[in-house]
Fold NRDE family protein.
Amino acid sequence: MCLIVFDWQPAASQNNGRALLTLSANRDEFFRRDAQPMHWWHDAPGVLAGRDLMGGGTWLGVSRDGRFAALTNYRAPLEVQPDAPTRGALVSAFLAGERMAPLDYLRGVAREGHRYNGFNLLCADFTRRELGWYGNRADAPPALLDAGVHGLSNSLLNTPWPKLVAQREALCDLIHADEHPSLDVLIETLRDPRIANDEHLPSTGISIERERVLSAAFIETADYGTRSTTALRVSPAARGLALAIKERSDDDGSHRVVRPGAFEQAFAFEIEG
């Protein structure tokens, strides 16, 4: 993923009407990199995620037992190691591996973080009501997140890049108007092609022309762009927690990229346990 905004409310209950998590995310990637859209994995029953067919991992996923993980790359082109291990495996390992508390898993990742190119990793266990973050370019250890609206792009958590600030504010406005905005509205809001003014652009080691293009929430270039948008909600339910997730993708499973991405699928289930 390259842009994630989310409202985290670990004290949510049916009584207060809040959702535990309301999230929307864009995956930006080169069009030549083959991937499968969101599906239940045959080799890891209980995992629902897209799949990167080059590295084998994923960028965002959930599990039937209430785990969630998502990853963004950290933009530092001069630091890229061509032989570094794939970062998407960090997401799939949390979802499909032995169940661990988010902070314990992230601490284990941090011990090996130097081996990877730059990344941010979110891991949650909804039944524990815990959501953690670790960035391997941050001068800080993994930590559980406090309640509130947060955002991740290709820098550290809540770094005020224009698109992150705009989309975080947009999510706040949506929730203020309706505590449970539809997944369609969350998707449409994040697919915003507007480019930031030059004076607000970050300087990350790429050309100003590239900074402009990448400043949009929804990116479109000849060879690179927003490949999918995902919306997720986890809400208290009568027997525990209910999860609803929807993805709009440029790939219907045939691995042929069709722009601007209109293939949709949605899943909903009660979290086990």
